[in-house]
Amino acid sequence: MSRRRSPSRTRTALAGGLLAALLLAGCAPTPSPDPALVKLSQSALSYTRSALLGVDQQNDGRIFSTTTTALLGDMEAKLGDLTREVALHRPADAEDAAYRTDLLDASLASLDAVQAAARGVSDAEHRLEDAADTLEKLGQAG
């Protein structure tokens, strides 16, 4: 004899299992700030430090100015792309939104500092250092 469950009992068990799965999925903690934003802050810090290294080496006479110009152009492009990506990111909660705003401000400051260095502005090295410090603090907060 085969035991056959009633259709209503099967539906009830299925609905209960589905409800439990949905509850468990909804209760999973989401990391905050968003790991994607933290990774972007680390990339921005890397680009800023690369630009700073190029300026330092040029000031010490250890790198050609054409090489520094190429490096600064590359870092400007990378920071521009990163800044656009940060601007397009949609935060999941208020903490992500605050982190995104801080990262956007810091990446824009870094981009401005790299552009100043490319133009040969006298305080560009100081601006790059400030931008790197801000990005480092932001990365530690994440």
SSE layout:
Elements: H1 7-27, H2 35-59, H3 65-88, H4 94-119, H5 124-141
Helix pairs in contact: 2-3, 2-4, 2-5, 3-4, 4-5
Task: Explain this structure.
It is a single chain. The protein is an all-alpha fold and 142 residues long. It contains five helices and no strands. It has helices at 7-27, 35-59, 65-88, 94-119, 124-141. Helix 2 runs parallel beside helix 4 (94-119), helix 3 (65-88) packs antiparallel against helix 4 (94-119) and helix 4 packs antiparallel against helix 5. The relative contact order is 0.15. The mean pLDDT is 89.
Element order: H for helix, E for strand: HHHHH
Provide the gyration radius in Å: 25 Å
Number of strands: 0
As a percent range, the share of helical residues equals: over 70%
Overall structural class, as computed from helix and strand content, comes to: mainly alpha
Mean pLDDT: 89
The parts where pLDDT drops under 50 for at least 5 residues are none
